Amino acid sequence: MKKKISFYAYHFCLCLSFLVLPYLLSSQSSIIRIPDILHNGHDRTYFSVYVGLLVFFYVNYYYFIPKLYFSNKKTLYFSLLFVFLIVLLLTSHFFDKPDIDLFNIEKMARPKPMHPPGSKPDFGPGPMNKPNEHFNTILVYLTGTLTSLFLAINRRLQHVERDKMQAEISLLKAQINPHFLFNTLNSIYALAIRKDNRTADAIVQLSELMRYIIRDAHDDTIALDKELNYIHNYIELQRSRLGNTVVIEYEVTEGHFEKKITPLILISFIENAFKHGVNPNENSEIRIQILINDTALQLLVFNKKVSSVQTEKGMGLQNTMERLERLYPDKYNLEITETKESYTTVLTLEL
């Protein structure tokens, strides 16, 4: 609501400034002259022409350009531009009559007195210079037309770019979601093979994971507590599957959960640690820490290197990096440190 009020207030101020402009430029004193629209031909001309230009600007921007120019009806569009220019010039010619007083019909009908022979007629201030007046009208008209066309084309390009980015992000999500579900089903399958009592709890946690992916993960942003709950369920599923074969430490700072975050932007780094840092025959260790403050979130994922696991990056991790670049340009910092013994990822994200 506040954004809409601000939008209308901004346009109102622009329109008012545009209407005041001719009187400001024609004022001989430091104070703007109050226009006399009813009795002064010059003021009527300025006012009618500039109001017409304002009306045309918005009609052109919101209707003519989208309905005609962008619909390949350019001949009709430019014909309308020419017709409106002619109407504007005729309006300017009609209203620029200094002797016309809209509230004094008798004065309008009274003929002008004849000047004595030999005397020079006094024309007074007279009407504006017509060539100069028409030149200014055409110049302002062309400026407004080109400005509205430029703004409309720029807005259209922004929409196209946004739609393209949304399509790319949707594709990345579509690639990530089956990847998560496949790994989670494998975890539950391992529990079922061992007839572990935690299988039922794991199925409930899987249902919550699926509900999150199907219902919430398609939004542009999601409440941070929902994303953290998703991560919690994922880690608990891994605890159930791996048992005592790996030491898992998970810590989240309290508070600031009302923040918003892009769905599924953190999980790939955590999943990557489980994918490449777990081996039942070795001492496996995974540490996950999420720190949240007023402006940013920091994710730290550490895992000891183990043998007999894949070393290449998974599709989920690569897609997440691409999503970070598209959704958080200049608002994230990703540091990956690899040694002979460990692999550490630190992601700092502005919320």
UniProtKB/TrEMBL annotation:
SUPFAM superfamilies, A to Z: ATPase domain of HSP90 chaperone/DNA topoisomerase II/histidine kinase
Domain of life: Bacteria
Example of a GO MF term: phosphorelay sensor kinase activity
InterPro entries xref list: Bact_2-comp_sensor_kinase (IPR050640), HATPase_C_sf (IPR036890), Sig_transdc_His_kin_internal (IPR010559)
Taxonomic source organism: Flavobacterium supellecticarium
Domain Signal transduction histidine kinase internal region as annotated: residue spans: 167-245
PANTHER family: SENSOR HISTIDINE KINASE YPDA
Protein name, UniProt field: Sensor histidine kinase
Database matches in Pfam families: His_kinase
Protein's UniProt keywords contain Protease: no
TM stretches of this protein: 7-25, 45-64, 76-95, 135-154
Keywords: Kinase, Membrane, Transferase, Transmembrane, Transmembrane helix
Gene Ontology cellular component terms for the protein in this record: membrane
